[in-house]
Design a protein that fits this description.
The chain has 649 residues and is mostly beta strands. Helix content is 13%, strand content 33%. The chain is built from eleven helices and 31 strands. β12 and β13 (256-257) form a beta hairpin. α1 runs antiparallel to α5 (261-272).
Length: 649
């Protein structure tokens, strides 16, 4: 994305405007098993709470949650439990995190014999989040001209840390104590300010002998305006100040503009891209190497560089003899890949140098682990075991995965009604490329958090999938003109002898066709002029390669060998394939559990017209990535099909 120089004031304006705008991106959670934790979360979005849009318990298709199930359990696709939406809204609205499972519906089975699932769509609503401990008062207040709108309230206890100061363990251990209530809304909605007490006398006692708290969320809306202005933004009206930037409220001390999510991410990027460095000295097993983006909203770790060894004589030198500091060219190969695999895409990552101590790059030297990383604005998703993670981008954008890990790193995430034995192993980790292979380059993608997909890194532990992704432009290269020719005596002639500039009329034939064949439809294309040097054009004359291209918005698809690529358009549109290539161009795409020997040839390419011949002009099309269809351009290499298409009327 483009990064502009934005002041903190403009960043706050961006945040204010994003919150004030009506453009809110929904998130979706699908849970297959009735014992599985159904987890809704807005903890990665600053000042936001859950607002449930839709919720469904039953079965609406034969594909969702169908793995290993007999056809008879999938046949009824008109199965749904009435009242599901109201139950989930009552339990989750206004909270930052909400965990439950489908057992809350088991008293009513809408379709016996059908394997059901729970599917919820929600948004993270910008709101004011308040917690008041038992026997305390919650004060709600808005600016003049605004009124309170309560979005959710619950009296009880959901963790052991909130409102816990100097309380006995017995008063904190019941974390399944919940009483959603409408009393706050009934007392406060429509008022400019309101006070309500967190006490049993007001809400009743949902769990005796437990010390409880009241959790609620509300927004402030304009009294006489159909357009809400949440978060104390004021209600002053203003005219548009430009065709593309409109003033939506006074915001008292700042201007609020309608800014897209992309511009907000640009603002976050520009304010937080300064790299952070963490250094941990070797020799102490208790030393934790901790990378963290947990204070930056909607940001995850992106490791830039890391060193295990020694590059100077000052770092981690206290109390060490000179001979342990003298080797300043000591580094362990592969450290960067290990850190990227373990930490990229997470909000917090902790490890220590013990992970490297099986290989000592320089015996006798006192080493340290040093990592430089940035906090990358991204979508952060957690899907509990047996649930589905849904990734989605806007039209014209595609998914880019920055990291994924299947395991468990704490005892609270995805813990609802799970026994302690399933939560105690917090060092269970399996960084994975499965998500990258399945989702990169697609507009939307669904992946299941299960042992069948990722394997089981810790038997007996209830796990979850944690991943981060961004949405990037789906534009691809379209070469318009290309010339490989001799210099004209002026262009690219600096430092060349005159005899090497003599001939200026000797263009290489078929240059355009070669560039189009190699580059059209790719997001990145690299080559050099050596591909043209088989020709004798302009012998002994200095030449240059000159290309003009555009970036064409398109749909980018990658399909691993022995898999099928599915191309489809909306009704009334047809497929137009712009390029297709069967081979391998890097070592990471379609690499999961493949031996290194099958990935090392990254110059394997077979541009093909077969996809265009099979799919052009159709509304949908399926084509298999296999040697039987495209031939084998590189024997012994595991290949993939990469293609680009657009949908046209």
């Amino acid at each position: 994305m483009l990064c502009f120089r934005l002041s903190s004031a403009l960043f706050l304006a961006a945040v204010c405007c994003l919150l004030a705008s009506s453009v809110v991106y929904p998130e979706r959670v699908t849970t297959c098993d009735e014992h599985t934790v159904h987890r809704l979360s807005c903890d990665g979005t600053a000042s936001a709470v859950i607002s449930v849009v839709s919720s469904f318990y039953g079965r609406a298709d034969r594909v969702t949650c169908s793995a290993g199930r007999p056809a008879a359990q999938l046949a009824n696709t008109a199965c749904s439990l009435p009242g599901t939406l109201e139950i989930v809204k009552t339990r989750c609205n206004g909270k930052r995190i909400c965990e439950l499972n489908a057992k809350i519906f088991r008293a009513s089975d809408p379709c016996y014999g059908t394997y059901k699932y729970m599917d919820t769509t929600f948004i993270c609503l910008p709101a004011i989040h308040v917690i008041a401990c038992e026997h305390s008062a919650a004060h709600l207040g808005c600016d003049p001209g605004q009124i309170i709108v309560v979005h959710g309230a619950d009296y009880g206890r959901r963790d052991q840390t909130t409102c816990s100061y100097k309380r006995s363990a017995s008063q904190l251990q019941n974390v399944y104590c919940s009483r959603p209530t409408n009393k706050v809304a009934e007392s406060c909605n429509g008022k400019n300010s309101c006070t309500i007490y967190a006490s049993n006398s007001v809400f009743g006692d949902p769990c005796r002998r437990v010390y409880k708290y009241l959790e609620l969320a509300y927004t402030c809306e304009c009294l006489d305006s159909p357009t809400s202005a949440p978060l104390n933004s004021g209600c002053d009206s203003s005219a548009a100040i430009s065709p593309t930037v409109q003033l939506t409220g006074s915001c008292k001390t700042m201007l609020c503009f309608r800014l897209s999510f992309t511009l907000l991410l640009a603002a976050v990027c520009c304010l937080h891209v300064s790299a952070e460095k963490v250094t941990t000295c070797d020799g102490n097993e208790a030393s934790v190497h901790r990378l963290s983006c947990d204070v930056t909203a909607s940001a995850v770790i992106s490791v830039e560089s890391t060193l295990y060894g020694r590059s100077d004589s000052e770092t981690c030198s206290t109390g060490r003899p000179a001979e342990q500091l003298s080797n300043t060219e000591c580094s362990l190969q592969g450290t960067l890949e290990i850190l990227k695999s373990r930490c990229n895409g997470k909000r917090v990552c902790e490890l220590n140098a013990n992970v490297f101590q099986s290989s000592d790059p320089c015996p006798g030297t006192h080493k340290y682990l040093e990592t430089t990383f940035t906090c990358l604005p991204a979508f952060h998703i957690i899907a509990c075991e047996h649930s589905a993670a849904h990734l989605d981008c806007d039209v014209g954008q595609v998914i880019t995965i920055h990291g994924g890990d299947y395991g468990r790193h704490d005892q609270t995430t995805c813990s609802y009604k799970r026994p302690a034995s399933q939560l105690e192993n917090v060092y269970c980790s399996r960084p994975t490329n499965n998500i990258t292979e399945s989702c990169n380059g697609q507009k939307s993608c669904t992946i299941y958090a299960s042992n069948s997909v990722f394997g089981d890194p810790c038997v007996g532990t209830y796990k979850y999938l944690e991943l981060a992704y961004t949405c990037e432009s789906s534009a691809v290269i379209r070469v318009q003109s290309a010339q490989y020719r001799c210099t004209d005596g002026g262009v690219y002639s600096a430092g060349r002898f005159a005899e090497g500039l003599f001939s200026t009329e000797c263009p290489q034939e078929e240059t355009l066709g070669i560039l189009q064949s190699r580059c059209n439809g790719k997001r990145v294309c690299e080559l050099n002029a050596n591909v043209f040097q088989s020709s004798a054009a302009c012998l002994d004359t200095h030449r240059y390669l000159y290309t003009i291209y555009t970036c064409l918005p398109a749909i980018h698809v990658i399909t691993c060998e022995h898999s099928a690529a599915h191309l489809y358009c909306d009704p009334g549109q047809i497929i137009v394939v712009h390029s297709a290539d069967y081979g391998r161009h890097d070592r990471t795409t379609c690499s999961y559990k493949r031996p290194a020997s099958q990935l090392q040839n990254v110059y394997c390419s077979r541009p093909t017209k077969k996809v265009a011949e099979s799919c052009n002009g159709r509304n949908s099309c399926t084509i298999y990535a296999s040697n039987s269809v495209f031939g084998d351009p590189c024997h012994g290499t595991y290949k993939y099909l990469e293609l680009i298409y657009t949908c046209q009327f």
